[in-house]
Amino acid sequence: MTVFSLTRLPALLLAGGLGLSMPLLAETLANPYRILTESELASQQVQIDLFWQKQVQQGSFKGGANIPLHYAYVIPPNAKASIVILNGRTESVLKYQEMYFELARQGYAVFSYDHRGQGLSGRLNPDPHLGHVEDFQDYVQDTGLFMAKFTDLMPGPKLLLAHSMGGAIASVYLGQAPTQFIAAAMSAPMHAPNAEVLFSEKDGCYLAAAVRWTCEDCYAGFVSQPYQAGSFVGNIYTQSEIRYRRFREQYQQQPKIQLGGPSWQWLSQACAIADDMPRIAKNIQTPVLILQAGKDAAVVPAPQDAFCQAIGSYCHGGKVVKLAGARHEFFIEADPYRIPALTAVLDFFQQKLSQSD
Question: In what order do the strands lie in the sheet with 2-4?
């Protein structure tokens, strides 16, 4: 496991360990890719909004069982490659507007869609706030349908960027389509959900296996419920107040994308796919970078290490990249965690693009 901590950054910078520089040490981590900082975000918001309105194409396509799935993509001039984003549970493409803006500035075309049952895609239950899926393979099938529909539009080599639940979907999909992407980066992948109910992370999985037969579309656990806009204080996702506030405001302005807790069936399926990860890993033939959050309370980090070891030489660097102190959502984290995370991803992608020339 490779660990990045803020106290080690000066040494890493001198040694070139992260490929980062720090021209404004007193203010923030520097960044060779000019990733937006928290202090810059507010002044750039109008530009991001205009970019999203004028350049990003949105629409709907049919997923498995004809479930309508919302998509968004942007193709900047002279794009050098295409990045496909598989987002996490409860998320929407709308939450990734800053990421689209930044990746497009780096010369990447960006493609993504909302998973079934969340975001602007079709719901699977009369309760629109219930996070539900009948079979985890439905997510994987939707990814295949998305790729079949949009591959011809994607310029250059294809790269995969997956977060949380999207990381679990990506893992299964990469095993089924081993040559479609030249590289994949996973942010806090859900190789095992944190299903803690009583004593351990696995307790919820055991309970889900028993309860789902009697109430598969009930909210799982004892605290799951419809969407609520929680406060920044005490949240387990990010230490960036501005980014946390922005995504909550967005969900407030777009009630359709709000999603609450998962169903027992969803939890049962997530646990089942976690149990199958050792077998899934044997089919991976794509170079994978795994980012692990040091303070992740949404997924269990240890199975990410096991997955890295299971895919062997395809795990970039032979170890997960752990950012000490980071919370689950790297892409809306505070600058000291988000900048190194995105720098590591962009360095990895650029290296693989250079090797593919």
Answer: 2-4, 321-323, 288-293, 183-187, 158-163, 81-86, 108-113, 68-74, 57-62
Structure tokens at 98: 């800053």
Residue count of the chain? 357
C-beta separation of 146 from 152 below 8 A: no
Contacts of 92 (CB under 8 A, 6+ apart): 70, 114, 118, 119, 120, 254, 257
Query: 341 and 326 in contact (C-beta within 8 Å)?
Result: yes
Counting Cα atoms < 13 Å in the Cβ hemisphere of 140 gives 18
Q: The whole model's pTM is what?
A: 0.90
3-class DSSP assignment, residue 338: helix
CA angle 87, 329, 164 (to 5 degrees): 40
Residues 6 or more apart whose CB falls under 8 angstroms from that of 40 comprise none
Q: Where are the beta strands (DSSP E) in the chain?
A: 2-4, 57-62, 68-74, 81-86, 108-113, 158-163, 183-187, 288-293, 321-323
Measure CA 270 to chain center: 15
In this predicted model, what pLDDT tens digit does every residue of 44-101 receive, in sequence order?
999 999 999 999 999 999 999 999 999 999 999 999 999 999 999 999 999 999 999 9
Q: What is the chain's percent helix, strand, coil content, to nearest 5?
A: 45, 15, 40
What is residue 6's DSSP assignment?
Answer: G
Closest of 118, 67, 63 to residue 93, by C-alpha: 118
Whole-angstrom CA distances from 114 to 63, 87, 201, 257 are: 10, 7, 27, 10
| DSSP states along 133-170 | -S-HHHHHHHHHHHHHHHGGG--SSEEEEEETHHHHHH
Q: Cα separation of 229 and 167, whole Å?
A: 25
142-185, pLDDT tens digit by residue?
A: 999 999 999 999 999 999 999 999 999 999 999 999 999 999 99
Burial 304-327 (b: 16+ CB within 10 A, else e): bbebbebbeebbbeeebbbbebbb
- Closest to 357 measured CA to CA, from 81, 118, 121, 9: 81
Do 93 and 113 meet the contact criterion of CB atoms below 8 Å apart?
Answer: yes
